[in-house]
Fold this protein.
Amino acid sequence: MKDEESGNRLGSYLRARRELVSPAQAGLQPGGNRRVPGLRREEVALLAGISPDYYLRLERGRDKNPSPQVLESLARVLQLDDIERTYLLGLSAAHPRAPRRKRPEHVPARVHQLLAHLEIPAFVEGRAFDVLASNPMAVALSPRLRPGENRLRSLLLDPEEQAFHQDWTKATADFVAALRTTVGDDTDNPRFVELVGELALSSQRFRSLWARQDVRGLDGGTTTVHHPVVGELRLHRDKLPVDDVILVIYYPDKDSDSDEKLRLLGALAHTESAGTPHDRQADDPRPRTP
């Protein structure tokens, strides 16, 4: 994180990625007495067709404007996928960041109306995975989907959320990599700074994943969760951009076992909601005055 804080994001990313590529993966003999994980600097330089001295300058932040050809060669040596390659190209000083106008994240009124009509779990999240709005089915699926919660914080720090996910290890890796992709070059955004700082202090899992500098999108997909009431649910996830926020919906295959369980969960949630006065006095333990 030191290089990131000092502004050497390109060098930090190059070092993190070369440490994840083994000599065997790069077609080299492993050799003995290797003092670094992954590839050495000179090995990356050799495979990319650039001088070791030039590569050293890149890692140390002394040259922040490499050509696209050099970056493409490094992406090939470091075995980056399309998302990682695009991220690497975006770290070059040849791509200056356009000034951003800071705006609070706002959920459009029409999206609130849509949430109220959807009978499947649906919620709205911001760029840092803050839950901005949700419908009753989302809260019935997970209480951590109430507005004001942060999905990544819950995933890393809440034991109930950890038990909720069938593959917590993969879920955390995906979320942290997606956060880094979302942050991009907006590293001075106060919300990102606050969240990364909090998780870096409170979660060893976050620190190790953040240091890897993985980047990837967290869009559609299928996940399996363990609900404490209805049991295992296999749900599809879609993320739909709406203005500056993201609408997230979860839904099962029609007429599947998970579909039946989700309907049961909806019925239970409706029963609980109907039995609770709108003024929430049922939650108040104090005696009521007639």
In short: The radius of gyration is 23 Å. Strands lie at 122-125, 131-134, 221-227, 231-242, 245-251.
